[in-house]
Amino acid sequence: MEECLFCKIVAGEIPGAIVHQDEHLVVFKDINPQAPMHVLIVPRRHIASLNDLTPEDDNLTGEMVRRAAALAKERGFADGYRTVFNCGAKAGQSVFHIHLHVLGGRAMTWPPG
Ligand code: 5GP
Ligand code: ZN
User: Fold this and answer.
1) Is the pLDDT of residue 2 over 70?
2) pTM (2 decimals)?
3) Closest-lying ligand to the alpha carbon of 1?
4) What residue ranges line ligand 1, CB within 6 angstroms?
5) Which of 8, 26, 32, 37 to mutate for ligand 1's pocket (most ligand atoms within 8 Å of CB)?
6) Range of the domain at 61
7) Is 62 among the domain residues?
8) Other C-beta atoms within 10 Å of 42: how many?
9) What's the pLDDT tens digit per position in 9-67?
10) Domains in the chain: how many in total?
11) Residue 26 counted as domain residue
């Protein structure tokens, strides 16, 4: 996936403000943060969108969600944070390598825009 921005950040070809990495995931700060904490939880493996997930990815997506909870807790935001998967251009997905947004540190409203 030579042209994928997040594959390049995962590979270290483009710098990212990495806050966590492990065997399956890389987590880095969003370049255009929408909250005091705004990080992106990104699987190392390229998956374009939620529509491309298979049952084999269930552990991976579980790890993503649990990592979001762990990061929010570490930063003292366990009492209120937002997790978002944008899926498809119409929903605002601009990078087609799945990523879980984790936002915290401010009041959140509902519904999102
Ligand atoms: P999406 O719109 O696909 O749900 O989210 C993509 C996110 O990636 C956006 O919030 C955007 O600010 C972030 N982003 C875009 N380019 C870069 C980049 O080069 N580095 C980092 N760290 N974040 C990026
Ligand atoms: Zn990719």
Assistant:
1) no
2) 0.97
3) 2
4) 5, 16, 28-32, 86, 92-95
5) 32
6) 5-104
7) yes
8) 26
9) 999 999 999 999 999 999 999 999 999 999 999 999 999 999 999 999 999 999 999 99
10) 1
11) yes
